[in-house]
């Protein structure tokens, strides 16, 4: 938005010349398309999901089988074939991916960020940063394949009762996948901490370790939290790795019990893939349930993005 | 920063905790990288199976390829790290260029007829030339006239008279379009000459500009003729190597000529780095000599699953015969569609937000909206594609156009965000200077902002494109077929894609056989292409950052 007054003054007289008008209109239409996408997304998800619920199906004029909102939100059995749509079975699996991957990604990501911003020499950083970007560039379907072919067999000797499809491997690959996200956003926040604060720390006799942990990290805390929330939102939306690695048995598990991670489960994204990829006929209740899950997923990730943005804005240290 | 321990007189500070912390952090940084590297080595081992080769084969290549390359590398390093860097870069360039020439050749073998290609190029080139001629004939022509002339020239050339507007009213064609005229010519040169004619001159022009930038006319002509000769030789010599001439021309123009031009440019313009060119030369010669020697001696190579059959076969229910060809072709077509649909819009939106947008509420809404769109899971974009295009617009599911549109919407926010960063990096002074010269806003954007942010935009868009190729979930949601036995013949036909094929092999055909053969081979090809794209982006960015 460099539309400063200088440019405005200089271009005012030509503003409505045909080439100016044409180019400006084109650029505006491009920008407006993003709004159109959002509106399309929201309208589509709401209208399609509305056909799924009993209370709203009449409003959009849909006959046939529907599910009640209460059953959808509080049920713990997900069996579209027999008409049981308890989304909690899927939500707990998604929660497990979120918790499991954050155990890996958050400490490693913050560690990486501290190392890159405080310790690494410019040369080392110029090698490590592209390396981390490549981690994020590997397709998620490949990560899913890694999980079932290499990681699960590697873990099986150590973890009793680990099946081919399990949440543990899925969590590990999703965790590794989101490390670069945590690391890069946290590093940006840490690099933004002014040099004077560090120098003041050294002046007080602090060691580099103390400066890093007691000055830089607390000062960058809002950025670090915001990176956490964004990474978790990414873990929630992650699809292919969990579809391949976690199996496709929907069950209601306790995400806070480590023993359940050896089980197979069906996160929300994987359930959507399973429903569409399977032989769901268009227009049926199972088909419409995909949109109900979709809007749930959309609302959750949207909320997390907004919260992350808010945290970064609200608690930003003003230097 | 490292002044903390250098001041004496403060007593001793324990460094144990600090050192421990430092190494813990390093371990954390390396963990993901090492972990994924190990997995990639595993999968490469499964796919290529280097240990199945004869020991003699390994010995031959060690003697002809590895040892000489190491020796030359050490020598080049002695002469200067820059020379070695140029050498290594050239190797990477050769590999990436050959990879992309393979993809380009595939398009002209199976999707686009050379005659159609020629007709299309002519139909675009002629109106472009007409427009440019009109403008240079009289500079004071008004913009509106220019615009009308341009639109009319392109319309006539592509559609003829009266064209689609007339056929709506039921009028038959009076004058055929240039496109139809060329495509319908009863005589046509052999396909490979058409390809050489369309690829050769532009490559030769760019090559001579690069090598002989500020030299005399003779050098320009010489270099251009050399490049043209390489392209023609590709078509003429291909039959002797058992390849059709058309892919021969494409590989020579896209895969051989650019690295040769780069090497020639280095040799001519940067004498200190000349010696680095020995490294790629050794690698190329060493591999050829090694291949011939191993063949003569009868040493069998590794029983790699990634081989010619894998790259050119279509899917099969037996893992050992399953191929990747339709998936690669589908991915290439999707990539082109995504690029055509998403990049102009994404860059346009970025220009609007950075250069034109007033700082008001609407702009802030767009701003927030784009960052939120970037966070929406890809599977939800798949739902958008399914609902919007399949259900409401009633398109057939799984076509190239549909996949391209869905993936294009998916990467649009990423393109916008990265293009905005590149545009923001253009210094304000250059804009002010442009205005100072009396330029209008559009002239400033066109002549100052976009050229200066071009490499940054390119970097971001390549990374975004890499993301689009790797996506699977949206394609499944819009009903792209898991298994295709041939390349799609057009944009409105269903297409598979590389990640989708890998997913199909690792889920629908799940079994030890597929896990050990087809899937690793597919993963190796997919990851190799993505790493190539990412490395192009990273090289571009490093170059861009060091010149700014």
Secondary structure blueprint with pairings:
The complex is a heterodimer of chains A (about 325) and B (about 550).
Chain A: H1 5-11, H2 18-50, H3 54-57, H4 69-74, E1 78-79, E2 84-85, H5 88-119, H6 122-137, H7 140-155, H8 167-191, H9 195-203, H10 208-219, H11 221-237, H12 240-245, H13 268-277, H14 285-314
Antiparallel strand pairs in A: 1-2
Chain B: H1 16-48, H2 55-79, H3 81-111, H4 114-137, H5 143-159, H6 163-168, H7 178-183, H8 191-211, H9 217-237, H10 245-269, H11 278-297, H12 308-312, H13 325-356, H14 361-374, H15 378-392, H16 400-424, H17 428-436, H18 441-470, H19 473-477, H20 498-507, H21 512-516, H22 518-547
Helix pairs in contact in B: 1-22, 2-3, 2-11, 3-10, 3-11, 4-5, 4-8, 8-9, 8-10, 9-10, 13-16, 13-18, 13-20, 14-16, 15-16, 16-18, 17-18, 18-22, 20-22
Question: What labels describe this entry?
Answer:
heterodimer, A: 319 residues, mainly alpha, 70% helix, B: 548 residues, 75% helix, 0% strand
Architecture overview:
The complex is a heterodimer of chains A (319) and B (548). Chain A has 319 residues and is mainly α. Chain A is built from 14 helices and two strands; from the N terminus they run ααααββαααααααααα. Chain A has helices at 5-11, 18-50, 54-57, 69-74, 88-119, 122-137, 140-155, 167-191, 195-203, 208-219, 221-237, 240-245, 268-277, 285-314; strands spanning 78-79, 84-85. A two-stranded antiparallel ribbon of chain A has the order 1-2. In chain A, strand 1 (78-79) and strand 2 (84-85) form a beta hairpin. In chain A, helix 7 crosses helix 8 (167-191). Chain A is globular. The model of chain A has no long low-confidence stretch (mean pLDDT 87). With 548 residues, chain B is an all-alpha fold. Chain B has 22 helices and no strands. Chain B is 75% helix and 0% strand. In chain B, helix 4 (114-137) crosses helix 8 and helix 15 packs across helix 16 (400-424).
